[in-house]
Amino acid sequence: FSLEEITVSRSLLKEKKISKSVKLDDSTPSSQDVPVAALTKSIPGSKRNLQRNPNDTLSSNIRENENTDSMNDRDRVEALTNKEKPIDNSGGCRPKSGFIGEMHIETVTKPGAIRRLKNFFGVNKKVKEIKVSITKEKFLEKSSKVGKKQLHNKKIAPIIIWDFGGQDVFYSTHQTFLTYRAIYMIVLDGSRTLDDPCPSEQYLPGKSEHKTARDYLLFWINTIVTYCKGSIQGFPKIMVVLTHKDQVKAHDVEERRQEIFAEINEMFKHTPLMQHLVIEDKIFVNAKDKNDTEMEKIKEVIISESERQPTWGELLPKCFIPLELEFASLTRRNIPLITLEHLKKVNALQPIRPLSEDELKVFLKFQHSIGKLLYFDQLKLNDRIILSPTLLIDAFKSIVTDKRFCKGDRKREEIWDAMGMRGVVSKEAIQEVWKRKKYIKFYKDKDYLLNVMTHLDILVEPKRYDSNRTRIPADFYYVASMVRGNDDSGYLHSTTFTQRNIAIAFQSTSLMIPPALSFRFISYCLSVWAVKTYGEANDDMLFHRSGVFTIDPSLDMYILCEDDKITVRLVHARTNALIMRDLASSINECLTSALEKISQLYIRTSSDQSQTNDESFVTRVCCSSPDKPCIIPFENLSHVGKIWKCSTHGIEHNIHMIKSWISGKDEDRCEPGCPVTNEEFLRELPSDRHLRRLSLMFSFNEVRELAIHLGSSVTDVDNTLHTSDPKIWNFEVIRQCRDSHAVTFKEIKDAIEATGRGNIHKLCK
């Protein structure tokens, strides 16, 4: 659809006034529909990527950067006197344009155009320039011409091209751009074999030694397919293109082409990933030579694959077009972000039919799904629209970037060093950077941009509490993707570690877990629990793709993200027998839900419906060894007796403890092996959590009787401060018994049995 047909501000200078009204059958959103475009994205595999302008299109009929205007109901002319300095411009219109209220203003300086406008409006005053805006009538006239040409029924589609930098610090931003609606292109250096070490290496999960093109190819294909699951099998499509043909001897080109593509075919032919690859044409180009015949072949493949896209030809309401044009105009004038109120005013001025509030939301969500803009329908985020998604990336890059990009900038180098060592960036440092002239555009909307980054878990505001469990406001953010330190604390090999932990693993159903998903999962944990401090120096236990979090003073949670699984351990200060079953199962449910939501985040759709997909992770039980733990499926536990002995380490695991991860039925009796039948457990002092549960089992008089049986005097019990909540009083009485008389689980069990009050097995839940 040609924006040229709608752009009328300049044609105002040449057109005569229309004397008759123009009637358009355009009052309903579904009167005519236009096909939606496919998208193309480029993923780097070599230093020299295919050079394409982000505004290039595959059809000469598309001009995304053509000027479009906000509409008003009348012409607007502003005359300037001779005293004001004229601006010379032989084109008749200044390239500079203004935005007054909700109107787009063009400044006319060409004498002939000024003379015609003065005659048209009856202006006698001598002027050097005139400002002109569009009218409703002119918009209707141009719209009518577009309708007569039936351009909306032709298969013309704009193509948006994103070129990824590929630096590993940006992995956590991929979720913003990767979409199942796109066609992807991975570019490899064809002058090298797939197994040659890459000269410029970036971080890859699970690869500490030299990386090869084979490693990066596998990583990117897995990443794309994992992020972009759609409902149609085999999509998205991923093109693989070889470059650097000019660095291969002419007589060796065909041999190299066949060799590399044969290896790629061999890599994936027996995997589900093969159906996503577009490698039949075996394209090998010299990207320096625009006349290389295979460069044209790339265009042909993109067009062909675009027409095969499930979303190709998807019908969209014609009433979306005016706002799309408005957005294109705003972006062209370097307005990357607007408020929702601003958009509503622009929408209300549309001369054909403004969108309703619900339609406006659908429009924004669709534009978000195809990557044209960013709109988050969330509290604190739904009052703005990012028209240029690169704004978010530029804001992110000003804080978090590859170290080479901040050399010579002392403040940003300090930020980078702090993030690399501890994974933190101070809020004050961000403000200092954004107050600079270069980044001032971010400072204006700093609260919104930071809220978006925290929503996407690029930045995480930590949870910290004082001794009274009161939240302490944080003056910094965690940046999980920037933490590079490894765990050398010795925590995993501390005394009796295997007797103090229980573990599960979330096994990926894909071939690998993309780094950004791991970072986001750790960021989720950072947003819920405090990072544990450990050792003589009280160092934060946050490392590269792993961390230790404090659940309560006696219980930690250890997280380790690996290439194919995420391991979670609950570690008690004394013994795993004291880990409450309800707590373990609740944490399991919480983490499972978080992982599925994070996975779903990457599945972009144009509706409010979630894409139906298989589960991204399956849960397994791990043995308690921190070194290459044995794994057993949950369903196999039904065939295990009281003890499971892992094959590799020979560690015996109480089946009751293993099943703590599984939410069980609320029954009075436990299965064999529960803690109440364990002598080691019975010798322990109960935690506050255990006492809280115990206090909920009894009435006021029953707690009084139980406390006296446990050794408290009648006077001590009666002197306990009474509150309006009897449950709190119950808890305080039992807690004083424990603290004053070192009451163990065995003594509580004996007291309950002696008084005939309740069932001790409640403590196992």
UniProtKB/TrEMBL annotation:
Record flagged with keyword Plastid: no
Gene3D superfamilies attached to this UniProt entry: P-loop containing nucleotide triphosphate hydrolases, ROC domain from the Parkinson's disease-associated leucine-rich repeat kinase 2
Residue ranges, annotated region (Disordered): 45-74
Bias (Polar residues): 51-62
InterPro entries with a match to the protein in the record: COR-A, P-loop_NTPase
Compositionally biased region (Basic and acidic residues): 63-74
Database matches in Pfam families: COR-A, Roc
Coiled-coil features, chain-numbered ranges: none
SUPFAM superfamilies, per the entry: P-loop containing nucleoside triphosphate hydrolases (SSF52540)
PANTHER family, per the entry: C-TERMINAL OF ROC (COR) DOMAIN-CONTAINING PROTEIN, PROTEIN TORNADO 1
Name used for this protein in its record: COR domain-containing protein
Record organism: Mytilus galloprovincialis
